[in-house]
Write a structure and sequence with these properties.
This protein is an alpha/beta fold and about 230 residues long. It has seven helices and ten strands. A hairpin with a 2-residue loop joins strand 4 and strand 5.
């Protein structure tokens, strides 16, 4: 089943001689359960593309469809609600709430979006699956970098999003923890039927994904299968 459709999206920042074509006529689609790597040199447009798909920025032209919903036609308020319910984010710097413990960080999207209703059984299942159950009462500053990133993944999966967007999720981790976190992301694809788009500069990580999209100068220059297929 197709979860994401990106159709001819373009984005320009600045004007006249200062104009920069961040994205130029990019199109691709993603099936449910795929793990996609987005690679390219620094400044090629990878993170911009992720921001467009996540509704954090709006393309100048083209359409992005998530779960058969075109997000460009949504109002700012509608987009905020849609994003909370359909998009999960994992960032390089974890972005956990320091005053909340691991369990409450994971449950935060549900608490915020659904007026206090939390599926505690599902949150518990996530934390156990990610090896965090015994750390559920700890605060972020009591965790290692790998544990913080696992907590961020749990939070991103809490709403059972259509798409999980990961921007350099292992950028701050050592090689051993990087392998561990990649394994957890791949397992979430299988265990929860999750769809993941991951920006990475690490070619070895990209090769472990199902498909690799290569972006340069804001254009999709190649698309190929990875070893994850």
């Amino acid at each position: 089943m197709k979860v994401l459709q990106v159709e001819k999206i373009s984005k320009k920042y600045g004007e006249k001689e200062n104009a920069v074509n961040a994205l130029n006529d990019i199109s691709f689609s993603v099936e449910q359960g795929e793990f996609i790597a987005i690679v390219g040199t620094s400044g090629s447009g990878k993170s911009t593309l992720l921001n467009m798909i996540g509704g954090l920025d709006i393309p100048d032209s083209g359409e992005i469809t998530v779960r058969d919903r075109r997000i460009s036609g949504l109002s700012r308020k509608e987009l905020a609600v849609f994003r909370r319910r359909n998009i999960g984010f994992v960032f390089q710097n974890y972005s956990l709430m320091p005053v909340l413990n691991v369990y409450d960080n994971a449950a935060l999207p549900l608490t915020f979006d659904r007026g206090g209703y939390v599926d505690h059984e599902y949150i518990s299942e996530l934390l156990k699956e990610l090896g965090l159950w015994d750390k559920r009462t700890r605060f972020p500053n009591e965790l290692s970098g790998g544990q913080q990133q696992r907590a961020a993944i749990a939070r991103a999966l809490a709403n059972k999003p259509a798409v999980l967007l990961a921007d350099e999720p292992t950028g701050n981790l050592d090689s051993h923890t990087t392998i561990e976190v990649m394994g957890l992301l791949k397992n979430s694809c299988k265990r929860f039927g999750q769809t993941i788009l991951m920006v990475t500069h690490n070619e070895a990580l990209a090769e472990n994904c199902d498909r690799i999209l290569h972006i340069e100068d804001g254009m999709l220059v190649s698309e190929r299968q990875g070893d994850g297929i």
